Amino acid sequence: MIGVAGSSPGVGVTHFSIMIASYLSGVLGKRTALLEENKSGDFARIFEILSERSVLKQEKGSCSVLEISFMKEAGPETFSDLANSEFDTVVIDFGHDFEAVRTKFQLCQRKFLVGSLAEWKIHSFLKLAEEKKRSDGKWEYFISQGAANYEGAFKISGHRARRIPSTEDAFTVSGEVIAFFGGFLEY
After folding, report:
1. pLDDT tens readout for residues 97-126
2. I need a labelling partner for 136 at 20 to 30 A (CA). Which of 48, 69, 96, 109 fits?
3. Contacts of 166 (CB under 8 A, 6+ apart)
């Protein structure tokens, strides 16, 4: 399980979660589930937008898009069902309210924190990263926006933060996206 959380609203957690699932499914051929464990309602909007396209197969509370099983508004029963599922990988979009989902986040083998270097958001990114360093084990850090002159040297809590490639469509797996995830997300 890969947990993805944001340091503040609007840093791109859902977009990044879809990118991860698209890479795992499309490039590595993994049976992938993508859960919405937040109250954003983004998955409902995704279902609505894609409902008239042939790429979407809906079942109650979930749908499949390009071989990724999306599950909106995941509840406790969803987590227990996944323990006995056929999925190779589960990506969980926790949104930005980390404290509300701390217990479930601890179950994830990999913990990704997405933040922004925008001047008005960097403080919350650094603060959360420092708190997590002391209390929640190993995290991996990702930068979604801000500081255009970023050269890969930005470090958080002694760990390198990776710049997420800019993509307009989170479902599209470009060569840049393959190179990015191929550097650290191999199974």
Report:
1. 877 777 888 888 899 999 988 888 888 887
2. 69
3. none
